[in-house]
Batch of 4 targets.
Target 1
Amino acid sequence: MKDNILVIGGTGKTGRRVAAGLEALGHEVRIGARSAEPSFDWDDPTTFAPALRGMDKAYIVYYPDLAVPGAKEAITTLTETALKEGVEKVVLLSGKGEKEAEACEEIVAHSGLRYTLVRASWFNQNFSESFLLEPILAGHVALPMPNAEIPFVDANDIAEVAVQALTDDQYDGQTLEVTGPRKLTFKQIVETVAAATGRDIQYQPISLDDYKVVMKNAGLPDDYVWLFTYLFSEVLGNADNQVVTNDVEKVLGRKAIDFQEFARKTAATGLWDQPVGQPL
Ligand SMILES: NC(=O)c1ccc[n+]([C@@H]2O[C@H](COP(=O)([O-])OP(=O)(O)OC[C@H]3O[C@@H](n4cnc5c(N)ncnc54)[C@H](OP(=O)(O)O)[C@@H]3O)[C@@H](O)[C@H]2O)c1
């Protein structure tokens, strides 16, 4: 059966891929984003009902993170509105090892909607489509938590798992923990990107306090500095997060994408080439 599916965050790293995967299966996709029509804005609950109206299912990506103040209230209002609008099933993107996100997962699980929770590890695409692209281009990646071993997961795998969860009832009520196939430190990640690009890119371990200063000097607002400090210390430092799972393989019937493969493909696009004017 073909469904009408709202993909919140549908222009972002996972949502864009979820939307493409659903459309390829013949489903009708509506993008949920401030830039979409009708506009959907997490900061304006009056936009929830128009976006959910007529939808059978929804992929929920909260922005910027389920751990921030206000997320619980927004997820409560969204799920209540979804129920009123006749939505049947939702898939929530959550963070693996994020204790603060679990309250939002509970809200979805008790919403009365059919649901699947997809808990993801840190994404490979943070280095190609997000805040870690700039340091890679600069050839100097200074980050805290040098000893954290992170099972980076590919956004393509997250999206494929989310599409399965949205289209196959067997995942109803389940929590799928999606990681890559092995754990890597930031130093190993930077070395892998350097090898894939043939560029000299250095990793510099710094303290969390120094990283906070870097973020403040870069003009990031206090709530972002708080969020990144939380993600580095509580999430990457959490032993629960430093575990490889095989849920990607269980759902997709193939191995999860390795960071090396992601790095090889991304390097081939030229995205990580030395920017013009950048000193060697
Ligand atoms: N990055 C990681 O390593 C990681 C790991 C685990 C979990 N997560 C979770 O993944 C989620 C982010 O997913 P993603 O990386 O796929 O998204 P993303 O790439 O950060 O994209 C953000 C999307 O949200 C929309 N958006 C931004 N602000 C919005 C607002 N106020 N209201 C409505 N839409 C808004 C954007 O479109 P517009 O700008 O047009 O509104 C865009 O479609 C977060 O909840 C995060 O906790 C991330």
Target 2
Amino acid sequence: MDKAYYVTTPIYYVNDLPHIGTAYTTVVADTLARHHRLKGERVFFLTGVDEHGQHVARAAERNGVSPQEWADRMVVHFTDVWKKLNISNDFFIRTTSPRHAEVARKFIQNLYDKGDIYPDTYEGWYCVPDESFWLPSQLVEGKCPQCGREVEILQEENYFFRLSAYADRLLEHIDAHPEFVEPEMRRNEVTSFIRQGLTDQSISRKTLTWGIPLPFDENQVMYVWFDALLNYISAIDYGIDDARFESIWPADVHLIGKEILRFHAIIWPAMLMAAGLPLPRQVFAHGWLTVEGEKMSKSKGNVISPYELIDEYGVDAYRYYFLREFSFGYDGNFSRDNMTGRYNADLANALGNMVSRVLAMVERYRGGEVPEPGSAGEETDAVLKQAAAKVFGEVDAYMEKLAFNEALQAIWSYLGAVNRYVDETAAWDLAKDPALAARLDTVLYNQVEAVRLTALLVLPSMPGTAEGIWRRLGFSDSVHVHHLPAAGAWGLYPAGQKASKGDPLFPRIEK
Ligand SMILES: [Zn+2]
């Protein structure tokens, strides 16, 4: 069996509600997963939640419930919004699941047996919300360098992971596989951090009970990040079902936000090296989103819930906007005006209006029945077919680079060619002269065929829209059962099938 294409999002912390940032990573992962499925590949797409740690324990206490009850209550916010956003994850991992604990305990026991985990005394500055220890030199004006909040001094006997032993091997790996960390600026950040020297990491806590107990010292629990990283292999049965694990691992890409880069590009690969496991092919860190030019924060009250925008614009417009507007890997700014502008120009006009014009003409001139092409092709037909022939390859190349905005630009440039074809061939003029009926048949067929390809092109980013176009084209099956490259060949629309215009795909939004 071929290894599955394996894509992951970070597991999201149950204490936070999903916002447009978490939704961004998840939509990107979903689009990648759907793109690979469309190519006929076996895919495993994983997302989930991170449920352990002091922060969860404290929130549970404040709310007068057990940490498990708190996690059970919070997880619904994620599963609900992913359902609403049409996220097609193959599994949803919860770190409180017994299987996750079993894998995590096996994994850590293995590292302990190999001598990569050892007991020592830890003393340091600790940021509770971030669950991070900091060196005195890392503090900014005595506060957490990551979030700016107060830190507290903490001393305890616990267990350490011998991260320092892996610095050279990590650098060698990145050198030999530069694509391991993307974009390049993040790779440079990682290599310069490793060159400064890596220190062994405390990986357990004695003062906390909400976590996975260490198999070799049941009085301590794993640090939340240590157990969290293991979700990527516990979800696919590491140490439980070898055949399954090997048919999915290593991950093709871990999609992450830049704030968790070091965990994923330094500590995680070192943990895997220690366990003798292959490393993921790529860790891709994206930037942060600002809202109307400002950083999103609870205190500013500008945290946007995906629901708000989905209700306003629709699921597919939501997915499209974030994929199209931001250059994946870099920071980007969300603005409502900008979203409305893109909606009207790209979705209502270039896409929705084109589909509706084409199908309306089939209804008007041929009673909805798509005719057989009736005349020899002309130059304009050749131009359209050329655009169709090259767009799938272009999109695939951009998707390989995770350049979603460029992939969509390529699709929209194809839509531009379709719209030009509709204008230039002017079916409404052909329809006036019965002597041109054969030419009209050809033009109508070509337009409909161009719309069929459009459904396949937008499927990964806008699955609902792809299905909507497919239904309007009169197909009784789902667009999702078709695969590229076969389905992308020109001329597969079955002449004689009935198509109908239906409701507008994207009704204009008045500002
Ligand atoms: Zn902090």
Target 3
Amino acid sequence: MISLIVAFDKHHLIGKDGWMPWDLKEDLKHFRSYTMNKSLLVGRNTFEGFKKPLPHRFHYVLTHRDLEIHDESVQVIHDIQEVVERFKGSDEELVVIGGAQIYKEALPYVDKMIISLVDGEFEGDTYFPDFNEKDFETVAIEEKEGFAVHTLVRKEC
Ligand SMILES: NC(=O)c1ccc[n+]([C@@H]2O[C@H](COP(=O)([O-])OP(=O)(O)OC[C@H]3O[C@@H](n4cnc5c(N)ncnc54)[C@H](OP(=O)(O)O)[C@@H]3O)[C@@H](O)[C@H]2O)c1
């Protein structure tokens, strides 16, 4: 199973200067809780924004570069297909955690999206890619302080 987790505002803004445009501790807690003990697919830019790998999670870091990361919770990959094929149709969950480039490339394979819709408007430089909302059904909306968590699942063809 392949899922995707993101926080965006009503304009689908996700990033500013390599980090998020807002400071929402409650959303970081939600992110931590959803991703805990799972495998993550992350782009090199977003991964570099973390000070170190996220504890109790496995990271597939996508890059064109010949990166060496000596950490048993990290695997550097150069081909998104490699990972997608391993998880597609499997009971084990791969969570796509961004950023924008990785969301765009992974979206066609995503079964479920966990979207934090952040209240307010912000300035920034990175946006979630366009996607066809008709391909997904909203199955849950949970209101939180400063954002609401929308769960979308891909409609059966
Ligand atoms: N609001 C949220 O939920 C959220 C979540 C995540 C990230 N963000 C924000 O998004 C921004 C970063 O997004 P971004 O689009 O700049 O970067 P990104 O998607 O994190 O990483 C892009 C990098 O991934 C690698 N890559 C992409 N496609 C590849 C492919 N097909 N094969 C091999 N490598 C590939 C390349 O690395 P190389 O250059 O090394 O080749 C590329 O430069 C930051 O501001 C971050 O805070 C926000």
Target 4
Amino acid sequence: MKSHTVGQAVVIGSGLGGLAAAVRLRAAEWRVTVLEALDQPGGRARVFHRDGFTFDAGPTVITAPHLIAELFELVGRDPRDYFSLVPVDPFYRIHFDDGSTFDYTGNEERLLAQIARFEPRDVDGYRRLARLAERIFETGFTQLADKPFHRLSDMLRVLPAMLRLQSWRSVHGLVARHIRDPRLRQALTFEPLLVGGDPFRSPAIYLLIHWLERKWGVHFALGGTTSIVHALVRLLEELGVDIRLGTPVEEIVVERGRAVAVRTSCGERVPAALVVSNADPSFVYTRLIGAEHRARHTDRAVSRVRQSMSLFVGYFGARRTWPTLAHHTILLGPRYRGLLDDVFRRGVLADDFSLYLHAPTRTDPSLAPPGCETLYVLSPVPNTRARIDWEREGEPYFARIRDALERRLLPGLGGALATSFQLTPVDFERTLRSADGAAFGPEPLLTQSAWFRYHNRSPDVQGLYFVGAGTHPGGGVPGVLCSAKVLDRLVPRAAVA
Ligand SMILES: Cc1cc2nc3c(=O)[nH]c(=O)nc-3n(C[C@H](O)[C@H](O)[C@H](O)COP(=O)(O)OP(=O)(O)OC[C@H]3O[C@@H](n4cnc5c(N)ncnc54)[C@H](O)[C@@H]3O)c2cc1C
């Protein structure tokens, strides 16, 4: 890297997408300042420390690990000097409401043996489905995820392939054509939920997540996902990037249609030749950019975007361990489609739930005091458009979830609690500044994917770019890392900008 750099870039937000964008901009010789509203980096991937327990706030399932490693390699570093990943097996242990369990693993032989246990005729169905998932992955991930999608021609180019791959069907619709057993249908369709999608409405293209997990595995970062955030921050500091925490941006200053600076909450104007926003695009367009500069993203257009579901996340530490617990557990309730309809369509906080339980101390005991277990439980819930009073509902909801966990999975939990706290959709809205308290940006529908999603290059304001879950390709750690990769094709090197 040259010792002198030309051009100042500002990155708004230090989520994984923002940190990855900062590395890529620095590698292209921009001077980079990252402005983060919160008092720690990572966004959804920040960390909470309570009573000796370490809780990753959000992402725990690390897939496509090369997307993280390549950020270090890009600037001549060995990622092994910065963080360590270990494979997790099974990927997920799924507990069905009838008491049966299914270990979703990357080992095809074990996977097929379990499928045969549920429904022997589904073994061939799964083989067909897996081949299809691989083809969808080759188009949807390999060819599209890290390419810009801001021209209609980009969309038209891929349309024939998407039609061939039956993208008009939903993930559930496609899986149900190959799999008979209702429990296996659930096990093979919950993955869109990982990026905020309803399996009954997310287009079949999201079946690529299945192949992405099969191909590269599911991993956990020793020390927690926060160790990846800290590795990226360390790298950026070594590269001379200025990361300013506790610095919310309140305005993107636009002159003659071009972003020229940002203004922070204390009134400071930070000049920029280039602004990359990792903040939610719905929030950025309506709250940070004057209406006179937005021909396309008017307040009305933004209000029509359908935001994804939100999440209730309960964190708790226990003064004991459950040695047979899997690292990642999916605990399914009595209803599947009905519950998803409550969350995504009806905006109802249901009495039943389907849960994801994270038990990182199964892999890395250092995340809790000796003999203790760190846990977090996540329940998909309606976003804040549903107007649920979380101030009132939050604690009783968490208590119901803990009861269910104690009954089905964690005997003795009630008497072993050492610490507990929660995040609700209100925290996503207020703390992370996400429209409607959505956990994953706009819902991944066909009409909100690729060209239809917020573009990585703003059509309204020159010199403004987006990375992160709200823009193409979408939510999830691989998605936001790919969104930063798209920048490589859109942003010139600083010297020629
Ligand atoms: C509970 C939970 C669990 C998840 N689990 C997984 C998982 O296991 N695997 C997976 O792949 N994905 C998972 N996801 C999804 C994944 O975490 C997210 O899609 C991804 O981390 C989002 O990254 P991002 O780049 O969009 O930035 P975000 O994490 O959304 O960060 C954006 C940052 O911008 C900052 N910001 C916003 N506005 C401003 C402003 N005006 N000025 C300055 N800063 C601002 C925010 O404070 C925040 O730090 C999970 C998500 C959640 C919520």
